[in-house]
Amino acid sequence: MSETEAIAKGDSPLDLSLSAAELDARREHITDFIADQLDAAGVDRAVLGLSGGVDSSLVAHLAVEAIGAENLHGLVMPSSVNDEATMSDAERVAMELGIEYDVIEINPIVDTFLDAYPEAEGEKMAVGNVRVRARAVLNYLVANTENALVLGTGNRTESLTGYFTKYGDGAVDCHPIANLYKQQVRQLARHVGVPQEIAERTPTAGMWVDQTDEGELGVEYDTLDSILALAIEGEVGTSATARIVGVDREIVERVRDLFEQSGHKRSMPPAPAKL
Ligand SMILES: Nc1ncnc2c1ncn2[C@@H]1O[C@H](COP(=O)(O)OP(=O)(O)OC[C@H]2O[C@@H]([n+]3cccc(C(=O)O)c3)[C@H](O)[C@@H]2O)[C@@H](O)[C@H]1O
Ligand SMILES: Nc1ncnc2c1ncn2[C@@H]1O[C@H](COP(=O)(O)OP(=O)(O)OP(=O)(O)O)[C@@H](O)[C@H]1O
Ligand SMILES: [Mg+2]
């Protein structure tokens, strides 16, 4: 995937928004899920990477409701490509929720990988993925040390498009918000009290300077959610989806490609059949 010139926006995206009653039901369903996951694993604590983005801020709020502030450990892990306002919002979330958190700079870790394998220098995606995977290693360092689970922040839109790093931000013990499309993540975030600036911040993976999800995916989130709901999770054909959402057919095809090419990220690594 590379940064595209234009970001496609449908003329008539679907309304996937949730009512207040549905938001309350999701809130309870997800907090119950988090508590159940910890119970089933026989642990009291959870670890979560805090990025100052809406996904992790929402999971932080829901986890505090589920298991109590004293049982959640946040990790804020800046690198040279993250902007300062976003990183200070990550700390703000931790402070407002009253959870324990650490700030761990990952540049030295990433540099060590590049010293070990200088051939990757300048490879934007490969190096960006090292940043993401370095955070996963740190999450598990804390989880192992504190007998905790790592909470994921992946949403339905990211999962269906494969828009995450395999064994990076995808390396977690459970996925509390995986049933929510991105627009529903934003909605639930506002509903549970995530600060407005964070709920509305332009989504970024923070893997390189000025990266944005929508720029890289080439389609804006409400439109992408609609295409996924109709063409991927529903049984609506490509042309009909394009007509309903109000985008060129080529955009729907691109989303189908993202889904099909990312199947390997949504399943366990395959092994040969037993003989
Ligand atoms: N068919 C196949 N069957 C089995 N394995 C397959 C495969 N095709 C590739 N692979 C493996 O997968 C690797 C590529 O996958 P991966 O390493 O994940 O890398 P890749 O998918 O190329 O890049 C990660 C994407 O996720 C985005 N991202 C990452 C992290 C966070 C966020 C965010 O929203 O915050 C977004 C990032 O911007 C980028 O677009 C290949 O190097 C190969 O090892
Ligand atoms: N600098 C960081 N420090 C700590 N954790 C991070 C950092 N960057 C990313 N993460 C972790 O990786 C996850 C995936 O990133 P992603 O960008 O998809 O989510 P987000 O930043 O919470 O929301 P958004 O997608 O709107 O930017 C984050 O939710 C967070 O748990
Ligand atoms: Mg982000």
DSSP strand count: 4
Uncertain regions spanning at least 5 consecutive residues: none
Q: Distance between the terminal alpha carbons, to the nearest Å?
A: 38 Å
Please state the second-level CATH architecture of the domain at 17-205: 3-Layer(aba) Sandwich
Structural class: alpha/beta
Largest sheet: 4 strands, parallel
- Provide the helix percentage: 40-55%
CATH class membership of the domain at 17-205: Alpha Beta
CATH fold-level label of the domain at 17-205: Rossmann fold
Shape: globular
**What percentage of the residues does DSSP assign to strands (E)?**
5-15%
* Cα Rg: 19 Å
**Individual helix count:** 12
Strand arrangement within the widest β-sheet reads: 3-2-1-4
Task: Tell me the CATH superfamily of the domain at 17-205.
Answer: HUPs
Q: Which kinds of small molecule does this entry bind, naming each only once?
A: nicotinic acid adenine dinucleotide, adenosine-5'-triphosphate, magnesium ion
In round numbers, the mean pLDDT is 97
Give the topology string: H per helix, E per strand.
Answer: HEHEHEHHEHHHHHHH
Pfam family, one: NAD_synthase
Binding site for Mg(2+): 55, 158
Subunit structure: Homodimer.
EC number: 6.3.1.5
